[in-house]
Design brief:
Layout: E1 2-12, H1 18-41, H2 52-67, H3 71-93, E2 107-110, E3 115-118, E4 121-124, E5 132-137, H4 143-149, E6 154-163, E7 168-178, E8 188-196, E9 201-205, E10 210-213, H5 214-234, H6 237-271, E11 276-280, H7 293-313, E12 317-321, E13 343-344, E14 347-349, E15 356-358, H8 359-378, E16 384-388, E17 392-395, E18 400-402
Parallel strand pairs: 8-11, 8-16, 11-12
Antiparallel strand pairs: 1-5, 1-7, 2-6, 3-4, 4-5, 6-7, 8-9, 9-10, 13-14, 14-15, 16-17, 17-18
Helix pairs in contact: 1-2, 1-3, 2-3, 5-6, 6-7
């Protein structure tokens, strides 16, 4: 079983090489934008180009001749652009209105040829006088040190990011580890349902855990967008640099916010003895997620993505179900009455049995219930599935067992 992590490490860059690294990052961003521009123009049939090797064939030599960007960084810029264009095309297929991507965050992608890892430091391809050697800076008791220094983790590519406000470089390193996967007998499976939200709490579980202040996340986004709009009106170089700085700061803050929420969610599943985490599949209802859907879709997708890779370490699986009627159905065992009048904002009150619950908590229970019912109908593997609740579990037949956790 392959386990993947991202080690985020602060770098100590020599003073005499900081300008070289900044120039490298700025040139990489410009190159990635040129690859995006060319890919957006499309091929002879008019389609957006989403293959990195295709983009390289078209303008790689021109960029190398004009910028002297390191060969592997130029390849990385092409692949980075291709990944972004692929994401845009997928949104277009889902019916979203999109525009040509524009790189504003100062991020440079290093493949394993452009970066070399050593004990305590790394060597980065850069402008001027060969490679830049930068030391790792770890906080006390940091798990990042284990990822970077232990032979048990294999270091792969990385992303170099620069925070303008504090003049600091951070390296985001992809690491992986192979672990022997134990064959699990088909037995009791405990399911944690998760309801994701655009306000209130980012995620609510069937065990009654309310995770992540979505209102704070939205407040930070609105605050960033207001500042960006004011700066764009100024149109000065100083304003442009400030936009880059606050953009990097907000992106880093958002990623850390989602990281903490996903960590708390997986910990909740583990602490309750769950084997499966179930989300609702939101792909088909993207356009209905408020007027700020792009950012919220990113938050929803990033939360699920981080939960997926964190779950692998604990041997948990992550599944999805169609969200239809999960917010309208009464989750009380033996009831299941479904009606749109059952829910009113954050409140859920069953019009049949009178059961009252927080609406998101009720939806999370229904998400897990739907997954269990789908498995029973398909006769999946002979396993017995249990829905994880606050005080215990309920199986597919409605039989309740008090918690032993």
């Amino acid at each position: 079983m392959e386990i993947n992590r991202t080690a985020v490490v602060k770098l100590s860059v020599p003073d005499d090489r900081r300008s070289d690294l900044k120039r490298t990052m700025n040139t990489f961003q410009d190159a990635a934008q040129r690859f995006v521009d060319r890919g957006w123009d499309g091929d002879d049939s008019g389609y957006v180009i989403t293959a990195g090797n295709h983009l390289q064939r078209l303008i790689y030599d021109d960029i190398r001749d004009e910028t002297d960007l390191h060969a592997d960084l130029c390849v990385g810029a092409a692949n980075h652009a291709a990944d972004v264009l692929s994401s845009v095309v997928e949104r277009m297929k889902d019916g979203e209105r999109t525009s040509k991507p524009a790189f504003t965050s100062n991020t440079t992608v290093y493949n394993t040829n452009a970066i070399t890892y050593f004990d305590g430091y790394c060597s980065l391809a850069a402008y001027g006088g060969g490679r830049v050697h930068a030391e790792y800076v770890y906080p006390d008791d940091s798990v990042q040190a284990e990822y970077m220094e232990s032979d048990e983790w294999t270091k792969q590519g990385a992303k170099l990011r620069y925070d303008y406000q504090i003049d600091t470089y951070y390296l985001h390193v992809s690491v992986k580890q192979e672990r022997e996967e134990t064959s699990e007998e088909a037995g009791n499976q405990t399911v944690l349902g998760v309801d994701r939200n655009v306000d209130g709490y980012l995620a609510v579980t069937s065990t009654g855990a309310f995770i992540g202040n979505a209102d704070l996340l939205n407040h930070k986004r609105r605050e960033y967008e207001r500042r960006r709009a004011r700066l764009q009106q100024q149109g000065t170089r100083s304003a442009h640099l400030t936009i880059q700085s606050i953009g990097d700061t907000f992106a880093n803050w958002s990623e850390e916010f989602i990281h903490q929420a996903s960590k708390e969610l997986v910990n909740e599943a583990v602490s309750q003895g769950c084997t499966t985490i179930v989300f609702e599949d939101l792909k088909g209802i993207r356009n209905g997620i408020s007027d700020t859907s792009k950012f919220q879709q990113w938050a929803f997708n990033e939360l699920k993505r981080q939960v997926e890779y964190k779950s692998k370490a604990g041997g948990l699986s992550v599944e999805t179900v169609h969200p239809q009627y999960t917010s309208q159905r009464c989750s009380k065992t033996g009831c299941g009455f479904t009606h749109e009048d059952n829910r009113d904002g954050d409140e859920f009150a069953c019009q049949k049995c009178g059961k009252e619950l927080h609406a998101d908590y009720n939806a999370a229970r229904n998400i897990a219930h739907k997954f269990i019912q789908n498995r029973h109908k398909s006769g999946s593997g002979g396993a017995t599935y249990h829905l994880a609740l606050k005080s215990g579990t309920v199986n597919g037949n409605g039989e309740y067992s008090p918690s032993t956790v």
